[in-house]
């Protein structure tokens, strides 16, 4: 049965639309959400689980399946459907996003991309033709063309060059298709430029593609910028073929994109956050790892009819996650995907009944009451007045600092923001020395922007660098900008002693999400840090890891969190953090970092440093630390797998003779 799209009812108050498409493996109702089965499995769930949830289509990742098990194995097993025992439709991406996010581990030419495998460090080549050949071997129902995905905030010349090459590669992908029953979607690129997006859509829609995707978003852009591009791009695409927004997938994102006429979505968020203890509910996100749920007899979501909510309490789920029982994230993943798929069914019903505009407004209002995101408040929505979350206080040494009233923690509580930012982060990372070396721009991830002191200290180091130094690109990750807004207020700037240049930079970041000056770029990535890291295209050479403590922000101190970060690190990258907790150091080791003792910070005798290469550590953890690990009452992160202690003992840091005799 060939691929075919069937248009359906339209919502009178928005551009939302219903429809369906048919494939050789069945029919998919749209708007649709596709659970992500990266390596031929939706993490933690069986095909029977997915059928019970009534998932109509899943997504497979060509890049990962190309490296392991490879095209020969796919042909041997008769394709991805038989391999993973899934008899419903599958969409496969081209591998483009993963390859082009490899920064220093790939080379791009007109022919294709040469890249290093994360599996065995061997080199591979991927061209449009080879991507189609791999997807043909996978036997997916919908294939994607190979494209070039740059950060949406890249300069105009780079965006233009990538877009033009994407167009040429799209035509090569179309010519390489050999099975007419496998649909092929093209990908509209163009960054944040409305004119380039229009040009890309005009070019691609002249050719016989079966559907069109909107790519290159959620990689550095703000939510407002993203919304404008989605609305315009969807408007330019044909009515008689599906429109797919790639990799953008929180519930608010989906609700708003559906209103623009988008039909298909995918995202790793529902399952990834489940393994970190976060559930999506009808009133916003719930982190079951928090102590407030320990004795709760309430379900995750009283309005949800999934097996997790019908049978289990928040207290039980809290217990499972704290005990690191695999059943915990599995039950949360079942709930999260049920929530997403039920949302799509409700969306389709609202469109069919002509009430989508009201449905979207009411659903967003219910979610936003608990997601603390003022940017998503609907016009005219009513909320009870609340006290400001952040306040200015004095540290024990008399320095001014910012305190979060909700979690009760002070940012840089020991010696004040400027001193700690300089000592713990800028000096220890040898940022000035790194900038003085020849090379491309240095990318610095600032995880936990807070009041901006660490990022501003890095920008000041770039300003002081000698002429001809490397340019600094600071990428700050933060959900709540209240602390930075307070620091950049007139009172905050005076109390904290912000220089005029720093104050202008902070205010530009708040207003535009980006600040530019001759020596540095400072960019804001708003939202959940782990979700944002999974979408970030750049790769970090230096990381300042400074979120709130493991007690208040546990999901950012897990092995999974550091593994997500490790995937976004360049060769020779180093991380610095204030925490010295044994479980944090264990999490870093489990994620593949080499770990050592960091410099003192004020009265703190030591901090923690980690790196992708052992030579970057001045004082690596050694056998004596392993002995203390075995005696520790809390040696491992909450998500440590079975056999984690043995895995840490087998880490190259402790097995290589030259490393095992370290200085800790």
Describe the protein:
By secondary structure, the chain is α/β, with parallel strands linked by helices. The chain has 3 domains: about 5-265, Alpha-Beta Barrel (TIM Barrel); about 270-375, no CATH class; about 415-660, Rossmann fold, CATH 3.40.50.150. Strands 4-5-6-10-11-12-13-14 form an 8-stranded parallel barrel, surrounded by 5 helices. The protein starts with a strand and ends with a helix.
List keywords for this structure.
3 domains, eight-stranded mixed β-sheet, 664 residues, Rossmann fold, TIM Barrel, eight-stranded parallel barrel, globular, queuosine biosynthesis, 39% helix, SAM-dependent_MTases_sf, alpha/beta, EC 2.4.2.29
Q: What structural class do the secondary elements suggest?
A: alpha/beta
Count of DSSP helices?
A: 28
Largest β-sheet summary = 8 strands, parallel, barrel
Low-confidence stretches: 369-386
Summed up, the domain count is 3
